[in-house]
Structure formats: structure tokens, C-alpha cells
Amino acid sequence: MDDLPEFAPFPSSQVREALLPEQWTNALAAWATLTSAVLALSDNDLKDYLGTSGAISAVAYLGGAYAEVAAKGPRILGSSPAKATANLRLMRTLLVRLLTKGQLAGLGDWGLLADFARVDWANAGDVLALAWTTQTSSIETSLAVLKKNLIRLLDASLSGDLKAVEQILSRLNYLLQGATIAAAYFAAGDDFMDGIVSCYKVMNPPLRKVLLATGYLCLRGLLHSPEPKLGMLADRLYSLKVVADAHKAGPVSERDSYVVELVSATPILSQIKKVVESGNAPGTAALTSRIDALKTYQRLGGARSLRPARLKQKKALDKGKQVVDTADANHAELHAHKLSKVAEIQDLFPHLGSAFVCKCLDEYGEDVEQVVAHLLDSSLSSYLAGLDQSEQLPDNGFTQTHIETTPQSTFDPPYTPSALLPTRRNIHDDDDLDRLSTSVSKNLHFGKSNSRQTADSLLHDKSTAPSKAAIMSALAAFDADDDERDDTYDADDVGAAIDSTVNEVDGIGLGNGNEEALWRVYTENPGVFDRSNDVRSSTARAKLREETAMTDEAIEGWYIMLNRSPRLKRNLEARYSTFDGSQTKLASSRWSRPTENSDSEDTAGPSNDGRGRGGYRGRGRGGGRGGGSVSGSVGDAATQKARKNKEASKGSRANHSRRDAHAKKMARGG
């Protein structure tokens, strides 16, 4: 006993990947040998072994092993199903032996028990009941801390860690399913169930499915616990009724109601009804009224199971037309397909005889998978359990149809993968589909993965939406001027349609920002702009040059251009003139024909050549641009010439004279 070492911790997947297959096989064999040695100890020797640090190492080994097997599958415990099953049996036996030795640190951890219930669900009920009996205080302490943290995460909803909530509840559901006492513990009080209802409002389909399973298991625990708590169950159903009424009165859709999904997707109401109808326990009348009230929220079609129903194969009718077999069954000729099934099972279990395998196939309808499952779980029927497992078929049963499988040639050595060769890996290695796990059915579907999802539910789903911090960081990293379009020549492309600057009139920029100084001198003393030597050498010209930083030629040029552009003069006068509130002259608002000496740009007197500027644009009615009017007096030469030009070439090439005349007028005026 003193020579037995402590259990080494079970390594994680990262450590296992770094080990060679031979090393991992040796490690599994060492754990199995040590487990068998510890189980072979007497009670006193085992107590002495656990009294040192053996208990801590054994509990740590079991916790790590069950956690890894629950995550990766039992494939990691052996190269064959038989070895994996043997290691799982040793682990279960060690756990039961430790549970019978009283309170041990870490043995009542909810994570260890939940992982065990997931891995060895067939024996989870008895082992968890034993654990609750011997480790009551440590289990309740662990569940109390977990329940408190879950209530806080569920109440936080969107502001909390929804992914952590989903992972914890998914792991906890295995414990709630195997131990109804633990389910009843979580159902006690309103805080946990209210947190589930409030968290269900988040549009997260995977999380919603887990929340439905958790609520169903909690109510089922109250119903099927060793001491059914029907009064507490009635209170929980009443709380659900109140929540359903409040949801119905609100603006939220019915499909977002937790109670509607719970009573429609789970058989909880039918199970409660069976218990009520089976006995006369106190509180059944209240349960009956609660069931009738909640049935009104059940969707059409009744309750449906969360697990998809198995496809039922239609059995073929036995019409009695088969060939009568009069020979002895032991000497009957075996069919080739049955022999192939026998060979397939013997590859997995070489110690079994062919006759025993044939009887197993006959017992389970020649279903190889079912036979292998019963052999792995050691759950054969009483008839098969009493037979000789090494029994072989007689030789004459193989003479005609059985094809002997010759062993591998002795000249060819068995193939062993070399450690020097690289191993090809894939991102899908050791996933559910690679391990052929039963959970792979959750990810396989026909048609749409979520047929109930609509555009509205997808828009309301904030689980995959980026956070506000991510949006702000993306905006901070965005450079608005990175790909800005070059609009240098936009104004040139537009042309004269837009007056782009205030200081430029008719495409001419004068003064370059010195218009105010030039205009002030112009209004006070226009003689300063004369082109004479006396004026250039005067004090006023020198002061103007110093103020505007312009040469004499530029100043005189500005004066010349100002006199040539009455429009520029009006603009400068309107911009820089100071209005003192007194108006000495009132201009007439009545239109009158402009005189010949008018200096207006927009009006000009009639000319003999009919090409004067001014007047109205377009076809005009006389007195405007384009010369004489076609509606003038008959004896007027300008009128006759205008009418002649209007009708020229109108019949041969349409009325294009207007376009040509307009182009000439624009060229002359611009």
C-alpha cells in the first residue's frame, strides 16, 4: 500500500496532441493499472491511502478525465471501443468506491458530477443518488454558489455573458436530468425561474433551446423527486401563468413567450396530468386548475419533444411464403450476409465465438450496432448472459458459404506509422462528426436550419451584432480623406452656370482682395488712377501702392477694367458703400425704354444693323438683343431684315436659325 503512487492529472487536449500514440497508450495503461491496484485494497488500506494526498490526486484525476471525455468523447480512452469501455468501467468503480468513504474534498463538485452524468448516463441515476447521500453538504454548497452566479448572469441578460450562460446551463442540464433532487433544488424559489424567463427575451435561438430544457428539467425534478413536491410545483405553474398573461397583454409576439414554448415544446403538462390522475396526493386539485389554465397557451398540435422523433420503419408483413427449412439449425447453411456480420463483430470482440455471435444476432434482429452496444454496456439479456461466449459453429456450417479470412502474411510486417513522418491534420479532426458522436444530429438538418426564423427575428437578434466599442474603434480607424475624389476641376466643368466666387465677376478677378482699398480711393479721388508721370510720382499713388502692394500697371489696369464693366462697379458700390440712412434720390420702379446713351449692360438702343446688345433673351419683341423686331412697323428696314433672317432656310433644314443666331449673340456678348 505504501508503494502505490498518486494519480497523475488527466492531460488536456493540447498536451495529448504533443504525445506519440505509444506514449498515450502507455499512460492509459498506467492509469488503469493504478486504478485496479487501488480498488484491490482493503478498506483500512484504502483509508490510509486516501488519508495522505491520494484522495486529492484521485479526485483530480477523475475530474479531469470526465471533463475531457465529455468534451472529446470516449474515443480518447483507448484505441478500440473495448478498451475505452473497460477504462470507463474502472473510472466508475473508482468513483463509487470513493463516494462510500465519506466526505472527500472536491468529490461533491457539480462539474464532476455533471460530466459523469453526461459520459455514463446509463448508470448516472444510481451513482448520483449515492453521491447526494454521502456528499450532501459539499454538493449543496457547490450548487448554491452556482445558482447564485447563474441568477446574476440571467438577470444581466444582454449586458452579461450570454455565451457563458449557455455553456454552464448545457453542462448543468446533464446533472439535472440524472439527479432529480438537484433539479428540485434549482426549482426552489422564484429567482432562478424568473431569471430564465427574463433571459429568454434575448433573441438567441441556441440559448433559448437550453433555457427551455433547463426549465423543463427543473419542473420535472419537482414532479419525480423521491418526495414529490406538488405544492411547490403548483406555485411554479401559477408564476408561469402570471408571466404568460403579462406577455399576452404586451406588444411582444407570441413566439417570444417562454411559457408558450415551454408548454408547447415539452411534455411537462402531460406528465403532470399523469401523476395527478394516478393518485390522490394532496394538492392535485390545484395542479389540475393550473394545467387547464396553461393549456390555453399551448399551440395547435400539442406538446412536441425537444428531441426529434426517430423514424419508424414499417415492418414487412409475414405472408408465410418463405422456404420451409427442414434441416437441423446447427447444420443449416449460413447466408453470406450473416457471416459478414459475424466477422464484423468478431473483429471488435475476437474472444467471442461464432455461435454465440449468431445467437446475439438472432436475439436483436441481426442489427450489428445494437449487438455491439449491448456488448459494450454488458447489458445482454438473461438468455444470452448464461450462454458460453466461446462457443463456435460446427465445421459443416462453414463449408459451402463461409470464406475464411486469412491472417496477414508473416512476410509483411504490421504497419506502424513512423514517428518521423509528418502527420496530416485537419481543422475538423476529432469533432463530433469525426468521432461519430450522437450529438452530431444537432448540426444536421434538412432544408433551413431554423424554419421559424424570420426577417424580424433576425433583425432583433443582437447576439451577433457588433458591440458599441467595436463600432467606435472602426470609425476611429476610418480615414474619410483616404479615397476622396479630386474635385479640382469641378468648377471648370460647370462653366458659367455657377458663380463660384464672390470676388470674381464675369470670370475676372480684380484686385485680389484689395477691392475695398481701391474702391475707397476711386470714390474719393479717381485722378489717382491716371496714367501720367505726375500721378505716378504723387504721394497718393505711393500710399496706394504701399497699402495694396500692387504696381502702377496693376492699379491702372484695375481702373480701366472697372470702367469697362458697369456690373463690377455696381457690385463694388453695393458691397463697400456705407449707407447712412438718408436717401436723396428715389429711383423709379416703372420700366421705360432705354436711351441710346445708356451705359447699362442689359439694355441698348435700337441700331440700324440690328445687332445691338441688350433687350430680352430668346426670340424677343424688339428693342433687345438681336436687333430689329419682327413685330415692328411695316416700313421699318430693321423689321423687314429681321423677318427675312427668321424665315431663311426654315423649310430646307428646319428652324435652326434661332440656334445659330443665339450662338452668334453669345459669342459677341461674351
UniProtKB/TrEMBL annotation:
Report the InterPro entries cross-referenced here.
Answer: ASCC2, ASCC2_CUE, CUE, UBA-like_sf
Q: What is this protein called?
A: CUE domain-containing protein
| Gene3D superfamilies according to UniProt | DNA helicase RuvA subunit, C-terminal domain
- PANTHER family listed in its UniProt record: ACTIVATING SIGNAL COINTEGRATOR 1 COMPLEX SUBUNIT 2, ACTIVATING SIGNAL COINTEGRATOR 1 COMPLEX SUBUNIT 2 ASC-1 COMPLEX SUBUNIT P100
Give the superkingdom in one word.
Eukaryota
- Ranges for the region named Disordered are 580-670
| Ranges annotated as biased composition (Basic residues) | 653-670
Q: Where is the composition biased (Polar residues)?
A: 580-597
What the entry lists under SMART domains is as follows:
CUE
An example of a GO molecular function for this protein is: ubiquitin binding
**CUE domain: which residues?**
337-380
